[in-house]
Structure formats: C-alpha cells, structure tokens
Design brief:
Largest sheet: 8 strands, mixed
Number of strands: 8
Radius of gyration: 23 Å
Shape: globular
Number of domains: 2
Number of helices: 14
Helix content: 40-55%
Structural class: alpha/beta
Low-confidence stretches: none
C-alpha cells in the first residue's frame, strides 16, 4: 500500500509478508508448497481490513478525507459526469483555479457543476492554492449559479476544502463579503441545488457553496466549522490534541446525519473512495440523479420555502434554568 496511513500499518505488514512468501525463489529442484500459509495470511488481511475500517475513530476518518490518493472534483467530473465544459473568471478580478466550474451532463441531465479542487503534487497545489478559494472563486461560482438559474439548470456543488484562503490579498478583496453574498443569493436560486462533501468540508470556505436543497456527504468525509488542528490550538493550546478535537467536534458523516446537518451519507468502498474511484463515482452519480429527480417534483415556491426552513432549523439546542444559589 503506497501512501498508507498510520492506522493502516497492520494491513501493510501482512501484505509485506504475503508478498515475500509468494515471491520467494527456491533453489532449482526444491519444491515447497506455501499455498496454505499464503491463504491464511490473505484471510488475516481481510479480517484486519474489516476490523480497522469498520471501527474508525473520528480522527482516522479525517485522515482518510485528506488522503492524497482520494478522488477530487475533477476526478468525479471525469468519472460521474460527461461533456464537462469549464467556464472561467468572475468578471471582476481574475480566474480562481481553486474553484472549478462549468456545464456538464449527469446522465440525461444538463447541470452546472461547481467545486473546489486540490492538487496532486506541489506544482498543482500551488496553482490550485491547495483547494482554498479566493474571493474571486466565490464570485465566479455565484456568477455561474445565476447563469444556471437563468437557463433552469440544476446546480451541483462539490465541496473539498480546508477553508477559504485567509491571506492578506483575500482579505483586501473582501473574502468574508464574497462568502456572505453567496449564502444570501444561493438561498434564492429557483433551480434544484445539491451540495456534496467529498473530502474536507472546512468552515465558511465550504459553506460558501454549500447552501442547497440537499446536502450529501461521502462516508469518510467531514464537515466542520473549524479543522481539528485549529480547534485543538484554541482549546488545548496544542495541535497535537487534534484527535481529541475531532472527537469533540462531531464532524464525521454519522454525526452529521444524526444531527440533521446532512440529508444522506453516500457509502464508500471499504478503506475509502481512493480504493475504488470508479465504484465511488458510480454511487455518487446514482445518488445525485435520485435527488435531482426528487427536488424537481417540488414547485419553485415549495423548493425555496423548504431550503430556507432547512437552514433555519440547523443548530437546535436546549436550555436548562440555572440552579438558584442556596444563599
């Protein structure tokens, strides 16, 4: 296993033993049957994989969400969609390559796809700004959402970002306002809107393209107001406490569904989406088409009311009266 994570080491060790056993070259004339032992190791690998991937901690799921081999937006545009035609620029400043937008076909549906894009290597990550969009990225996204609204095309947003870019240039060009305007305007779009978190769903950078009729999340993705490391730095004063922060934040797909923050969890192959990109892309496509069909059955008025109500009801909490002092 290349690029394996720390908790996957037991699987790597077993696979190494199996490879050594099956690739052993014996002297000429010597015959030894390793089949039985090899079968035992294979069975042990299957058992170990099941035990590890069905009992992942929140921090381990965060690690899978960031896996360098995990499929990104452009991978899904290649595997789940067809006839993608990219559009560029916000018509105000520049073209943000961290935000990929354009027309595409999803089955028989013509749609507008908008998604954050990370890079595979250092050169591409610099070009894509590590998937962290600038203000012009959000303005480009909104420009094309309004174009889709004009031509009555469903909008699909694909979220995979640690957050919006926090640099000085982004602040000078009003990143907070760009995101805020997107939140307001996406609430008024008359066409079906579906957001899907495929990896990292970090803070306002994710929410800036996340207002939708349906919010979906892949099984090993996460959605959070802050990264575990950021939370750990604030609460524990130590980034090493990120595993504790990940647990406390309740940011995994199971928690998100339980708290009503997402509408559906899309299953992944055992071990993560990167282990079978084609299967994951096929599953994603089926779920997107299902939800587009469902949302299209709603009237525009009902769709807008439902979307507004959905986000107004997030973050419910209960209050208990403070106990009076005995004195």
């Amino acid at each position: 296993m290349k690029n394996h994570l720390d908790f996957e080491q037991p699987i790597v060790d077993l696979q190494t033993k199996l490879d050594a056993l099956t690739n052993t070259k014996l002297p000429s004339g010597v015959q030894v049957d390793f089949q039985s032992e090899a079968d035992q190791i294979r069975d042990k690998i299957v058992e170990t994989r099941n035990n590890i991937y069905t009992n992942l901690t929140p921090w381990q799921r965060v690690q899978l969400a960031r896996h360098p081999k995990r499929p990104y937006t452009l991978d899904y545009l290649r595997l789940s969609f067809e006839d993608f035609s990219e559009l560029h620029g916000d018509r105000l400043y520049s073209d943000d390559k961290a935000m990929v937008c354009g027309f595409a076909m999803l089955g028989e549906e013509r749609v507008m796809v908008i998604g954050t894009q990370k890079g595979r290597d250092t050169k591409e990550n610099v070009m894509r700004n590590f998937g962290c969009a600038h203000p012009e990225g959000y303005r480009k996204a909104l420009r094309l959402m309004k174009l889709a609204d004009k031509f009555e095309l469903p909008i699909i947003t694909i979220i995979d970002t640690a957050g919006a870019f926090p640099g000085i240039g982004a602040e000078e060009r009003h990143i907070a306002k760009a995101i805020a305007v997107n939140l307001r305007e996406m609430m008024t779009l008359r066409v079906p809107v579906i957001a899907v978190v495929i990896g990292e769903g970090g803070s306002g950078g994710a929410l800036g393209i996340g207002i939708a009729d349906r919010v979906l999340v892949l099984e090993n993705a996460y959605y959070s107001v802050i990264s575990p490391e950021g939370c750990a730095s604030i609460l524990w004063k130590d980034r090493a406490a990120a595993p504790d922060a990940a647990d406390a934040l309740k940011i995994t797909s199971d928690h998100l569904k339980r708290f009503g923050l997402v509408d559906e969890v899309i299953p992944e192959p055992l071990g993560g989406a990167h282990n079978d990109m084609e299967a994951t892309a096929s599953t994603l496509k089926k779920h997107l088409l299902k939800h587009i069909k469902s949302i299209k059955r709603m009237s525009v008025k009902k769709r807008l009311e439902s979307r507004y109500k959905k986000f107004r009801e997030l973050g419910q909490f209960e209050e208990e009266p403070l106990a009076r002092n005995a004195s």
